[in-house]
Structure formats: structure tokens, C-alpha cells
Amino acid sequence: MFRENDPPGKRARQSRLRSVFKRAIADVGVFSLLINILLLVVPLYLLQVYDRVLPSSSAETLVYLSAIAVLALAFLGFLDAIRAVYTQRVAATVDEKLGATTFAASLGAAALGAQYAGGLSPLRDLASVCAFIRSRGVAVLFDLPFAPVFLALLYLIHPVLFWLTLAGMALLVLLVVANQLAIGRNDALSAERSALASHAERVFARNAETLRAMGMVESAARVWGRHVADALVLHDRSASANAIFSGASRALRMMLQLAILGAGAWLVIEGQMTAGMIFASSLVSSRALQPLDQLIGAWRQIVDARRAWQRLEKVLAAQPAQQRKLALPDPSGAISVQDVFFMAPNAQPGTEPILKRLNFQIGAGEAVAIVGPSGAGKSTLARLLVGATQPTGGAVRIDGADLRSWDENQLGIHIGYLAQDVGLFPGSIAENVARLDAQADDAAIIEAARRAEAHELILALRDGYQTRIGPSGRTLSGGERQRIGLARAFYGNPRILVLDEPNTHLDGSGEAALEAVLAAARAAGVTTIVITHRPSIAAACDRVMLLRGGVIEAFGPSSEVLRQPSADKGAGKGVPAQQGTVVTGSFAPTIRAPGIRFGS
Ligand SMILES: Nc1ncnc2c1ncn2[C@@H]1O[C@H](COP(=O)(O)OP(=O)(O)OP(=O)(O)O)[C@@H](O)[C@H]1O
């Protein structure tokens, strides 16, 4: 599972889990031992009744025996209940110990690779592992080792009965293996198709308006239906095979019981056994077979839980360890990017990096615009600058310290990030602005909204700051979302602002407001990085970086990089290039800009 040279975080996590599982295995093992011993009560009772009570006609012995048997069975029921409650607790502990790390792993699901394609997620895997621990499937696994004990008892009663049961067991094992061979592949494929269907359903539901507007509902239903139909056909095949094998195993068990009774009667006739032994051995034999039989029923669940656990273990082992990091002094906002390159996760060998060895510095309080055509890598660079993504190589430093050495909660307070696709969280606008901080100060929320020029806009909504967003709440316009996202970025007076196309949904007045916002941030000494296709916004910054094909083509004072002072007139259409602009900066080698275009 884990090896000697594994990182310490991985080992610590594993040892925590190991101790939970070790304890649970020991405890459930003890319960199972007692339960299986008590399962002998009925066979022993029958043996005593037929061989002792009936020949002696002693009612008193019958009463005593019955009272002891009833007590023992009540204890068995109690232990069975305790075992079930205990496994629920173990499941809750696993959930609790792994929940937060698994949640974090699920947030990065896009980078988890093929094993989590098609709608699977680490959180779903954790849920199925815990559901398995809660189920009877666990009891089956713990009862299985007692089957040989019952077999040995049968041997003591009579070897013929032992061999009969053993032959029955061998046949049952053959049935389990044949069953698995028949359903295994279809089961896996069916699960894969079901996951694809639910993924398609979620994506279609998210884009329901586009589907309706463009008359794509039927086509979408066909795409979804194809996955569902495939899953159903495969599931039907494996369920039919499973039903046949279940029926066969049931018939086999009953035949075996008959054979044990028949053989017992024959042995009694031969004088090798007593009548009581017939019934006792029949019960012991069925106890020996029961775990195997239950194993067939629970097989699918056990296999699914095992697959989920293997995936989960892999992804949790890859999660960076939560180590306590030294609290560094609050940052002034100076950024330095050294030899940063970035490859897409799961990129095929030979694929070009998205960003190719970038080197630059941004001083504290400076305002920089990043411009360039679509696909140049601007949003990727923004994500690297705020630490949302780790570079494949090189380092992003804030105040000289590598982003990886900052405590992300400490640094996060000082960073305001507005992603290109503004995602608001389920909750009120106030909660969204306050970054979900339950202790947020009202004045701080209002100040952030004011700084983002969003206060009036929010007050104009019927429920103002308490307006609920999300499935049960209000749908906001693109511009409203962007302004609230901007307010969230401003919350807590961050030292660094990274805004990825903050003006996409803004109208004229919204854009003027944004320019005022940026000017205010600049005046307040906040390091501001704006990705924009608008020349007017780029011109308002100290410097402009032109990114193309993952390479910095130009980086210098905005007046030099942007050829025309009235560049905003060409917004979105492309601005003529200043041929041969010489960019001088202390941060990068002198670059000649062959052409600058805004927009794609
Ligand atoms: N996780 C990823 N996996 C694969 N490719 C990616 C990933 N992230 C980005 N890319 C690719 O990297 C390139 C740069 O993307 P990015 O979003 O950074 O461009 P951009 O300059 O912001 O474009 P736009 O102006 O259109 O937003 C694109 O070709 C994109 O498809």
C-alpha cells in the first residue's frame, strides 16, 4: 500500500487510518467470534432434546435447556445489534477522518485523471466505502473464517457429513467464481455507462436554457438515453447471470440439506449416529454454507467497495500533506515569477506547455494589464499567480516567499481573485461577499461592496444583501454576478487583486465604475493584475504584458506597449500593432513586440 520512502504526510494519514481499521477489525472480530459460538446453541439444543430429553422423558431438563437456549439466543441478538451499531460508528469515523481531505481532493477532480472521468468523484467513493462498512456485507466477511470451524464440528459428528458438506462448499465456490466471471466485465461497463449518463444529465441540466432555445432537447435526450440504454443492457445481462447463479446456489444448498438429512438417517439406521445428530448436523452444515451463500449475494457490493477504496487510496495518497506552515508577515504585494512553465494536467508526452518559462516581477502597488489573443494562457497565468493552480516548474513568489510556503488561509485573506467564470456560492449575497465567513463584520461587507461599486446595485434588489443565490434563490444577471464577484475579491482589503476579464458583462456605466474601482485600488497601493481585452482598462495600468502562445511577447509601460493613446476605440476588434516597440523593463530581457491584438 504505502512504502518506506513515502512522504511523511502520506504515512501519517495512512497510520491514522490503519489504527482505525486495526481496532475495528479486532473489535468486530471478537463480536463475530462470540456470535458464531452462539450460533451453535440451536444445534446443541436439538442434540440434547432428541438424545437426552426424549429418551428420559424429563420435562425438567427440557425447561432448563430451553431457558439456557433462550438466554443464549437473546445474548446473540444483543451482540448482533452491537456489531451493527459498531460498524456504523466505524463508517462514521472513516467519514470524519477522511471527509475533509476527500472534499479537497474532489475540488481538484479535473486533475484526477481517467479514473475519475465520467461523473465519479472521491467523495462518492468515500460514500460507497462507508455504505459498505455500514452494510451486512462486512458481517459476511467476518463470518466467513468460521465456516471451517463448523466443518470441523461436522467431522467430529461424522466424516461422511463433513465430506458431503465440503463437496457442497466446493460447488458453491465454483458457482461464486463462475458468477464473477459472468457478471464482472458487464458490471464494470454498466457502472461506467451509468456514470457517463449522470454526468451528461448534470451538464445538460446546467445548460437547459441553451438546449431549449436551440431546439436541442430531443438530441440531448438521445445522447443521455444512449448511455442509459447501454448501462441498462449491460446491467440486464449481469443481473440475469446473477439471478441464474443465485437460483442455482439456492437449489444446491437445499439439495445439500436434503443429502445431509438423508445421509444422517442412513447413518442412524447403520447405528453410527443418534437421531439428534441428524438435526444438529443439518443445522451445522447450513451454518458452514451460509457465509459462502451470503458472499454470493454481497459479491457485487464488496467488489464495488474495493474498487472505490483503491481509487480513493490512490487519490488521497497524492494529496499534499496538511503541514503547519509558519505564519509569514502580511504581504506587501510584490510578485515575482521565476522560470514558471505549465503543462496541462494529463497532457500527452510531446504536448506544448501552456506557459513557457515565464520570468517577470511586479512591484507592490503596481497595476499591470495582461493582454493577448484567446488561448494565450492569460487565465492560466492568473490562476498560477493566486495559487489556484501549481506551476509544473518554477516558482511564483509573493514578497519573496514561494506560494507553496505560504499558509493558504493566511495568504488567501490578502488575495482578491475574480475568475473569468464568476462562480457564486449557494447562500445570500452578504455571505458571498464575505467569502462564506460566518463571523463577517457587516461594515466590512458593505465596504467591500462599495469599493467594487456594487453597494447600490445590491440595495436595489428586493432582499438587498440577504438576497439568496442558487437553486432555491434568485438568478442574477451576468453583470450583477460580476459586480458581486468583484465585491468578494475586495472583501478584507486584499493586498493583491487578480481580475480575469472583470468587464465581460459590464455595460458602459459598469465599465466606468470598474475603471474607478481600479483607480481606487491603485491609489490604495493594492497590487492589481487585470486580464482584459479593453484598451481603456489596459491603458489605465502602469504596465502592460502581452502574452501570446504561452510566451511574453512584450512587457513594459502601458504608454509604450499600447501604440495609440485612444486604443480603447478598437476594443474587441483588434488594435493595430506598434511595430518594433522596444520594451524596457528591469524584469525581462528587452523584447521587440511584433504586434499586439486585443481579442481573438
Ligand atoms: N486544464 C487544462 N487542460 C488542458 N488544456 C488547458 C487547460 N487549461 C487551459 N488549457 C489550454 O491552455 C490554453 C490557454 O488557456 P487560457 O484559458 O489560459 O487562455 P486565455 O489566454 O485566458 O484565453 P481567453 O482570452 O480566451 O480566456 C488554451 O488552449 C486552453 O485550452
From TrEMBL:
Keywords, ordered alphabetically: ATP-binding, Membrane, Nucleotide-binding, Transmembrane, Transmembrane helix
Occurrences of domain ABC transmembrane type-1 (ranges): 28-304
Matches recorded under SUPFAM superfamilies: ABC transporter transmembrane region, P-loop containing nucleoside triphosphate hydrolases
Family classification: Belongs to the ABC transporter superfamily.
Protein name: ABC transporter
Membrane topology label: Multi-pass membrane protein
Domain of life: Bacteria
Segments passing through the bilayer: 20-42, 62-79, 138-157, 163-183, 258-280
Main location per the UniProt record: membrane
Listed InterPro entries: AAA+_ATPase, ABC1_TM_dom, ABC1_TM_sf, ABC_transporter-like_ATP-bd, ABC_transporter-like_CS, ATPase_T1SS_PrtD-like, P-loop_NTPase, Type_1_exporter
